[in-house]
Amino acid sequence: MGERVLVALGGNAMTGPDGSASPGDQRRAVEGAMAHVTALIGRGHQVTVTHGNGPQVGNLLLKNQLAADVVPPVPLDWCGAQTQATIGTLILNALGERAAVVVTRTLVDAADPAFGHPVKPIGRYFDAAQARRFERLGQTWREFPGRGWRRVVASPEPLEILDAPAALALMAAGYTVVVAGGGGVPVVRRPDGTLAGVEAVVDKDAAAAVLARAVRADVLIIATDVPAAVVGFGTADPRPIGRITAAELGRLHAAGHFAGGSMGPKVAAALRFAVSGGRAVITSLEHIGEAPSGRVGTVVEG
Ligand SMILES: NC(=O)OP(=O)(O)O
């Protein structure tokens, strides 16, 4: 019987093999990813899609800065909203007609300590000299050994997916809905109750765990570039993890087995959803059609 499935796709799954974010590369990558989503729909599941935007939002921000003398730069939350529209449109074109994108806001806490500690990597990699140049403009950059330097920005905890009710209404009408792209546009609630955007990028895996509850998903599939989470990744003895309880995976996570900025956030999101009663599967894009069966990937249950 079909289940309600939320698929979370990485922003990197929507760029070319070398991270290239040319329009053609993005379109081809999205079409490839949506072929797998379509396979999942074909198996009778009700599918909702969320996606990352790290490469795309960083590139938009950079373009803003480079054109600052001639066009007023817009804030990071505006760039996030723009990526929801552009990536969302590519997804809709690849899925066909009974699909919709919801511009989605994610509530965060204005006092979240993450605002003082930028950790979320966005945009493309640069060399050290270029990173230094951007650091002199007040930005924070971090080295990713073997890959280069990447800008990092604040990534507050998602508290609530504010537009999930709109997604639920569209799902009830039979639409495949794209929700909370890029983790959602981060907003805070002001003392007078109004909402305001803030300069941050919500981690899409963390937002996916909150969204999965909000849209009452049975399964959260976190698509990545490896078939399963691995203990001993990059060592001579890598051990892929199959079925695992949230308690055991939590112990491995606490012991530091999963790298921050890559598998770590995916494991944290899987745990968050599993302990709230759902089933989370971490697997590669190619396997998402089979993921609800529990026969592929790292399958986490409470
Ligand atoms: N917003 C976000 O987490 O995007 P990525 O998954 O592309 O980093």
Automatic annotation (TrEMBL):
A Pfam family hit: AA_kinase
Statement: the UniProt record of this protein carries the keyword Transferase: yes
Keywords: Kinase, Transferase
Domain Aspartate/glutamate/uridylate kinase: 4-282
Family note: Belongs to the carbamate kinase family.
GO-annotated cellular components: cytosol
Protein's UniProt name: Carbamate kinase
UniProt GO BP: L-arginine deiminase pathway
NCBIfam families in the cross-refs: PRK12352.1
Source organism, top-level taxon: Bacteria
Gene Ontology MF annotations: carbamate kinase activity
Keyword Cell membrane assigned: no
InterPro entries from the UniProt entry: AceGlu_kinase-like_sf, Asp/Glu/Uridylate_kinase, Carb_kinase
